[in-house]
Design a protein that fits this description.
Its EC number is 2.7.11.1. This is Serine/threonine-protein kinase ATR. It is an enzyme of class 2 (transferase). Keywords: ATP-binding, DNA damage, DNA repair, Kinase, Nucleotide-binding, Nucleus, Serine/threonine-protein kinase, Transferase. With 1224 residues, this protein is an all-alpha fold. The chain has 62 helices and 7 strands. A 3-stranded antiparallel sheet has the order 3-4-5. A hairpin with a 5-residue loop joins strand 6 and strand 7. The radius of gyration is 42 Å and the shape is elongated.
Amino acid sequence: MREVAKGQGVTLLELFNRLKQDIGSFLGEMIHSEASKQSPLQPIDILEKVQGVFGYKDRQTFLTQNLQYILPVLVRKASTTAAAATRAIARTLGVSRRTMFINHFKYIFSYLVRSCTKQELETALQFTESETEIEVGSLLRLDYQRMHNELLLHISTHYNQVYTGLEFLALKDPAYTGARDLHTREQMANFLQPRLLGILSFFDSQLLTPGTSLDEKKLALNSLVSIMQLMGAKHVTTVRMKVMATLRIALKYRTEDFPLLSCRAWHCFVRSVELPALGPMLGQIVVTLLPLLRRRPREVADIFTFLIVDHQGELSEHLHELYFLPDVAELRAVQAVVKQYNDDFWEKAGFAALVQRCLKAISHENADVRLFALTRLKDLLQQNQAKLHEMVVGNESADPDVSQLVSCLVVGCRDSSGRARAMVGECLGILGAIDPGRLDLMTNDPKEDAKKFHASVDDEDFAYDLLTELARAFFASADHKAHVCSSFVIQKIYVALDDSDSVAGVMATVQGEPTLAMQILAHSAVAQLHDASTACFERAIQRQPNDISHHQAKVCALLQLSQPHSALLYVNGLLAQRPEWKSSLHSYQVESAWKLASWGALESYLPSDGAVAQSHGWSVGIGRILLAARSKNEKEFSKQLEFVRNEQMGPLSAASMEGGSYQRGYEYIVRRSTSVRTQEPLLNLHRTILQLADAGDSARLNAELGKIWLRSAKVARKDGHLQAAYSALLNASELQLLPVCKERAKWLWQKGDREEAIMTLKKTLSRMNSNPSLDVDKRLHAKMLLLQGRYSEESSSMESNAIMKLYKDVVEMSPDWEDGHFCLAHYYDLLLAQLESHDRKADVLAYIVRFFSNSLQHGNKYIYQSMPRMLSLWLDFGATVAEQQQKKQESQATQNNRSMLTSINKVVQGLQDKLPAYQFLTAFSQLISRICHAHADVVKVLQVSAVIPLNEECGMLEWVSNTHGLRHVLLKLYRERNITTSGRELQAMVPPKSASIEEKLDVYKNKLLPRYPSVFSDWFLKTFPDPTTWYMARTSYARTSAVMSMVGYIVGLGDRHGENILVEATSGDCVHVDFNCLFNKGETFDWPEKVPFRLTHNMVNALGPTGYEGIFRKSCEGTMKVMREQTDTLLSVLRTFIYDPLVEWTKPARKHKNSSTETGEIQNALALTQINDIEKRLQGVIKTIRNKPYGLPLSVEGQVNYLIQESTDERNLAQMYVGWAAYM
């Protein structure tokens, strides 16, 4: 046996597993033979020798695993010798003979049926009855299903014997009520049908069990074919999905002739299922069989031909699903049929439907299908750029299909096929770097418990725990050095995360002066690269001239400032002194050279051979691509392009392994496309590529270069990189382009040189007017005029009529431009407030309405300013005229007003036909609030609302899914820490309302806060277990909390207890509900509210190491700035409460009586007071508790700081009502 195993290259045990049925039969025969001869060699001795040869550890193990092959042979002998042998085996196993026979009867019965004559079978069964003292029928009934399973396993090799055995089972089955004599195939199929699913499950186990030999698996597959033939289409169709699942299991075996057997099985399957049922399965069948196509092309093609060619009529509805078939010779006829149906579908289906079709196949288990689908998707995206663009930016958020597309492609970044990964990269590049905020990507599976901090990078919570430990050291340390070290590390982490707000937050909490390294990080994070490179880097290099990282940081800053020439000079100077730094600085040389279009230098830095030529990286890869393009070496260009693409797929593949993968890999997706945040490096590359072009049409080439330089200047200016913007402007100025003058004026204005900015515009416009031969675009001319008007208005450098003329010239020059009409209307509006003559006011008002209406007809850029202001002026003027008519005040002014109102009514009424309905819906609440207006021409608006009324005073706006109340979250976390306080205990601790502030503060600080420590950050760790989703969720929480805090303060939103603030479990968003307590109503409660918004210690705890510094503060400032800039729009919406005729939203105090005009409109006096207060808050005015102004208006930053201090002041929190839970 050893020689046989050695010859076959297997172990003895592996050899035994291949031959165990034959060896088992041999052993059974040998044991009986030796016992019959009364040989001294006992059965157990024989088994022990064999067990030793094949490496089994003992006889019991050997017998347990192989008795099913030995025992049936002994039973067939049905002799006293066999009985003695079975007794010896039972003793060895430590079981009774009866138990041994019962446990193995399914094997015994199957073997006897297949190997015995009728007489031998009767004898053997009588022997079994005598040995077990159980009637055969009872033995069979102990496990009927397994009896069927074992018999049918051998139907392919012993069809007649198995058929006879099944008839015997039918006779002994009391539950079977059909014909006992199963003479026809249909009768046998009806008998087996109730047990068919159990039989298929048994075959699954035979194919899946590792201990089952390959021969046994082949036997199972062949027998499955026989079963399908026996059962027929009627019964196989009912279990077709289960049969297909079983056949799929067999596809994993590719050795010897298994693929051929699989093909035969599938060939039988497709002919054993009724055609109508095959249709919906067609796509699954085809893609499942594609892996077999390479090994058995002819057999697979036969199956496809049967389905697609022979039965195309019956399956025509499903043939368009087979667009992914590979182009191979054996499938020519099949492809012809599929193409016919596919071409028709792809012509008629919409873009979104085609994308969905590709997405289904992108995640398919077969690599060929995935590759084909990705190729089709790539072509689809390239050919439908306009439709794709509309799906991405056409609405406030991207189309759900786009989110699904991005998710599928990100998952595809870790495809096992390199070709598929490369194709995924190309698709991502075509798709573009879509802002993650526009996509609905985040899904989350909360985990119950967080890991403890083990300070190991392998720990899945390492990032979170590291930040937590650093934060603890940061805030707890009294040692300045330790404090600085921990804050510096936190800063570095936030810089790596591209979180400039958090970097600023760390700087705000640093004790004393920040270190030089911290200042460099801060400058880099907020893009103050000029400050970093000219001051901080120089100082750092002076201190540590041998630290190469300082030099590298300075070069990076120079490159980001669009100063590649300075960067190259600096690097070359360094290498002259420190040649050993060559490998570390090589990529900077390459990047500087190609940005300068210095091709000779680039070729010297990237030789065709040598060690340096093997260096990799983004910059080096781009250099190689450009050199290949310059030499017009298409093959090398494609090779290097693919290489660079694949380099970017590595980080993307790693990022795709966790939640939030798109956000984590966004930096690398950006490199495959264009985005605002990274336009400058790509624009630089664009300029370099243009310089590769032939200089035949130098004028056109220079014009294109100038446009790109101009775009660089614009991008840099908008991001606050004024130095980089100036460099770009200098380059663009050399090309004498008129738009450069406009951009230069904007740069001067942002820089603070207002007079020079206006003078630049004047000079340019004067040159344009004095030189008619200049071919100037009218829109560009209008833009420059408008810019001059706006700058002159803001700086008050021109008198009103001159500014008015500029705006009118803009409208005249570009009558279809929204901006011109809006700015003219807005300026008239400003003048309206200064006019004293009522006659003149009516005329100006008509102009305002007219130009606002014109702006609405040409765009929606200013709709939230134009529409509400136009309607307010119109409706208020109409109310004035109506009141004059009621009072019968006849004068020239009154007549003029009536005439003017008629004119204005015609303008507004005309808008009903000119504007789409959705534009009016932007002012829906405003229109509804004036529904009682007396004038006949007021627009009648149908009410459409998403509110579900619950009673006269309240309704449900929306059901918010996946949210948890803050109070519920915190109480659960406290219970997990065994922190519980009953309501009675809490009431006993809280002092009465009449208690002094000192007493309340003492209870709050010394009793309540110690009982309720900060735990809210734990919820984020448990709910968002991987680092990226945790960080994103915490950032979303900080930003949404800040936005709602500022908005809530402005509108006076109160009652922010723990059940009115929710957290969203898939994104971390802070969601507020219950907006009943508005307009500072909380200050009128029995326990007046003392804080502008909720910012308790738990909410601060969840903001991260820097607390409310950083993201929260910056988001508050950003929100407040936007609201101040949009004051008119906000007040237009809020003023609807003044005229609300439907609900008395609060009982007015005696001094706040509502006034009713003659027109029937009610003016809510208290609402008017509150709106005025909101306007003051938007101006930065702080009021005392007695509603008196406190000092001069504050800046945005000053107002935000004041509000944060008020919200976190323990004296204020101590005075809050106990149900508000300021201690949580």
